[in-house]
Amino acid sequence: MENYKKSKIVEKPSPLPFTNLPSDIIEMKVKDGSKIRNLMGYAIGKMESDSVRQILFTGSGKAISKTITCVEIMKRRLKGLHQITKVLFKQIEEIWEPIVPEAGLDALTVKRNIPAICLLLSKDALDSQEPGYQAPGSFDAFWIETLKTESQGQIKRKQGGGRGAGHTGKHPRSVGGRGESYKKP
């Protein structure tokens, strides 16, 4: 491949994994170079209006984490949003051209499957039996419960559950040479 350079990438169109979406749904296509501030300014402005009930975020490849970040910000700003997440693969074609055309090399076409994610956010209730469904507030409830169990564990540790004074454990500490243990004077 050292004799080739990537000339273009063609993303094959793929149908959205959701059925019965309104034809005028806002689709936020998150790219690797997209600015979160710009995406969120537009998306939150649209979702705050009463006429928009659903919004769809899509991203693929390196933009998946940015897509998820946008959705999490949206759910924090606008409470009560239902979510359905779908993970899929998109096919892309990379066209590689020879660096030196006189060398007699042909152009190459490489087909690759890259991961993609589609996240549907809705003010209205969605089908809770749908795989990938998250109810509003379910994330907060999970973390509240996690923090409760962690704080109870910290209280138990403070009550003397760890290795403290007078506890030598399996292996007494040795100071100095081999096999000699430290003795208090």
Radius of gyration: 28 Å
Residues in β-strands, percent = 25-35%
Q: Using the alpha-carbon principal axes, give the shape.
A: flat
Query: How many DSSP-defined strands?
Result: 6
Major sheet: 6 strands, mixed
Number of helices: 3
Helix share bin: 25-40%
**Class based on secondary structure composition and strand pairing:** alpha+beta
Task: Give a description of the structure.
This protein is an alpha+beta fold and 185 residues long. The protein has 3 helices and 6 strands, in the order ββαβαβββα. It has helices at 36-48, 64-77, 138-161; strands at 4-11, 26-30, 54-60, 82-98, 108-122, 133-134. Strands 1, 2, 3, 4, 5 and 6 form a 6-stranded mixed β-sheet that branches. Helix 1 (36-48) crosses helix 2. The protein is flat and about 80 Å long.
For this entry, give a set of tags:
185 residues; alpha+beta; 3 helices
What's the gist of this structure?
Helix content is 28%, strand content 29%. The protein is α+β, with helices and mostly antiparallel strands.
